[in-house]
Amino acid sequence: MLELNVMGWPRLTRAGRPVAVRSRRLLFLTYLALEGPVERRRLAAAFWDGQEPEAARSRLRLELHRIARSDLRDAVVIDGETVAVQLTCDAVALADAVRAGRWAEVADLARGPLLAEAAVDVPALQAWLEAARARYAGWARDSLEQLAGAADRAGDAPGALEAEQRLLDLDPYSEEVCARVLARLHALGRVQDAATLEARFRIRYRDELGAAPRLPSSAQRSPLTPERPAARRPSLEAPPFVGRDATLRALDAWAQTAARVALLTGEAGVGKTRLAHEWTGRRGERALVLRGSQLGQGVPFSVVGECLHHIGEARLQALAPVWRAELASVWPDLAPDQRARPASNLPRLLEAVSEALYVGLEGTLIVLDDLHWFDPSSVQAVAHALNRWRLPGPLRILATARPGELNSHGPVLAWLDDLERSVTLTRTEVPPLTEMSVLNLIRQLSGSHQATGFARKLHALSGGNAYALLAFLQGLIERDVLRAPEEEHLPWTLTVDLDHLDRHLPSTLRDRLVQAVSGAGRPALRWMETAALLAPPFDFQAVQAGSGLTEDDALTALEQATAHRWIEAADPAGYRVRHDLLRHALQHQLQRERKRVVHGRVAAHLIRTAGAPAQVAHHLQQAGDRSGAVPYWLDATQQAEAVWAHEEVLDTLAHALECEDDANRRTDLHLRRCQHFKALNDLGGWDAELGLLAATLQGTSEASDTQRLAYVRERTHLLWRSGDHAQALAFSEPWSHGAVTPERTALLHDRAVILYRDDRTGEALKILETALADLDPAWTRLEANLHNALVLCCLELGLIRRGLAHAEHAIELFGNLQLRDGLASAHANQALIHAALDDRAAQRHALETALRHATEAQNIHLQRQCLESCCDIATEDGDWPRAATLATRGLELSELMTDHTGIQDFQARLTRLRSAHRPPPTHSNPA
């Protein structure tokens, strides 16, 4: 039979010979051994936590199948829906010995912690392992206490000393146990051994806890009774900073490297923000702080906007008028002297934001707090600023994020991947506080030099989460279980037995947080419930309107929330809930109907005060008014489109789809989303959206031919963009015949362009000329596009003069329509005709005109194409400075859009230009 030993370093043997087994499978066997027969459902949930139940059960079936084909097949027994093991296990034997009171056997089996050094990345399984370790560690301590007591009663002083020494090994920072061991050594006349032990204990204690230990010689003391009063100690409102020396050293080391960005990752409440604040404070430098918000992710530039309002209008006066005008297009209150107008284009807006953030810098340090909740536009703005700034010292960025939320944020992950590829990012995990760190914290807060058992209990309850730990402490104080006198020289005292401490606390942190707010009274609870539903920064009037409180009650509640530090000030002139764990707890406990009512009140208030459309739409949707939310989601979409925030547009349109029931309008929303996936070059998202659109069209008979042809064009264009030209032509062919309509003519245009790309220029020319002949004169834009496509076909077939005429027609029509994209494309095609006519001056003029229109249109693809062509002409003309300027612009544009191909191309151009223009080395004549 297999023998499983898991106390201390784990090992699996059969007849004394080791059996090789993976660590996770060893944990699987241990779980079954300790828990007994386990239902498949429970086993799957424990080992594959976070997956769908069916997926977890599938993974379990696969694992059991693999075990059945391994050397462990005789150890695992499956009986229908239950799974068990047949083996001997030292941990099971230890538990049996505890129940029988065989303490010598328990002490013998407790060779170390359960599954020493084992770690898992599944939350439910990790929680089970930590709880089991704590249980077995407690039994080990109990056994040694019992053995020491039995030895004392038998007059066996050496035996009692041995038990106490083993107890000190288990609890190496316990002053109480150390004091008892020292007393026993002295009683046995081993003075030198006692001196050596005390010296080593003091060094270990000081290195770990940063204080000198207190070693009382006698007296049975309460765990919270100090040997002598503390002169002054910190409070729960401003708790001491403990247990982060290793992380601080890691950040200090990072500051000496070439990596510009450090990312602190850890779960909510573990202390990432406090750590970042402490580190920046120790450097003596004021950091520029940008902070993300979950409820603000769908609003373009929301993070940047709050930061700019914190910088303030007065300081932003230092900006050049051109940049203040760009800022005024998004935040009119930051530049009230500027005339309101739309933003010029995305690069100029990003440059304005970059210049404004630069004004806010007071050193070379930036903190990006809760990076996982940055809106995509703010991520883009920060990335652009980093590429543009040239500071006197090395710029440092310290970011904090939660790994779970971070992994679902595409734009942030893409940016971090870029930083990692360029070796400018270092990652550091912020773990929960250790048991010793919690002991240090409790001793500083309580004024006690003992508190070992109390700290151990609090560590188990909180899991080492700093925010949870402080919340539980506050709860004990509020319930008078823990008495914390106002006089600083008096220690905290417990009013209940330590073993019963957890009975006086709610079972979850969420319940504890709600309990704390409820204890302040009904107005405070209603005020905080409403605040938890609002995107920061929220104002007092919005919270009062949503809560339904009178002005006096709302003001009182605001004072209470501020005094308890549940909220904090946020720019501009608003507030935010201090911690997301509190916000989530308050949201979770709100009853469904009350939540709907609060959302409805907030929506009504925002409508009266002309609030942001995205926020109005969100609250209307949450209040159940889906149809009323749609126009506001569309208004928010227009606002996001005005600043080229494609990711945020996709988000607002997704919400509009959630609220829209009409099939025709849903079709239009899907088509609109396709355009933004296309702009992002997200072919996967585009394809998925077309799948949803196809399902919508199949489910309705009311869709128009225009909508169906629009779908065909989108699918054709996607196949074309994906490189599958044959499939694009085959898919669109059945739809290319029929009545002449704008949509069908546009489809013919796309088919002709695909044929041209496939070197079937003659067929393309015939389709375009036929479409042009059948065209309604009122369809001016289509006519311009057909002429523009004919330019390329004529050029390919050597019909140069016809091509020039088509180019001139296209330019005239696009000009009448004031379509910058079309003008840029038409002028670029005209430049090709002039090149074929060997008219260098006309070619250069056409390209420069195309570049100007492409820049004004914010068409990145055309800008890059024109910059390449202009750079080539300047190089051929020997105009090295202009060629370098154009290549630099191309490189900056490629970096802005994270276009790696463009970055490599323009970098190569700059390298060639430097080599070609480098003056030859000079040699001095010999004397």
TrEMBL record:
| Transmembrane segments annotated in the record for this chain | none
Q: Which GO terms describe its cellular component?
A: cytoplasm
Name by which UniProt lists this protein: Transcriptional activator
Recorded hits in SUPFAM superfamilies, A to Z, give:
P-loop containing nucleoside triphosphate hydrolases, TPR-like
Give start and end of each Bacterial transcriptional activator domain: 89-220
Provide the GO MF annotations for this entry. adenylate cyclase activity; ATP binding
The alphabetical list of record keywords is: ATP-binding, Nucleotide-binding
Return the Pfam families for the record.
AAA_16 (PF13191), BTAD (PF03704)
Q: Which species does the entry assign this protein to?
A: Deinococcus aquiradiocola
Identify the InterPro entries for this entry. AAA_16, BTAD, P-loop_NTPase, TPR-like_helical_dom_sf
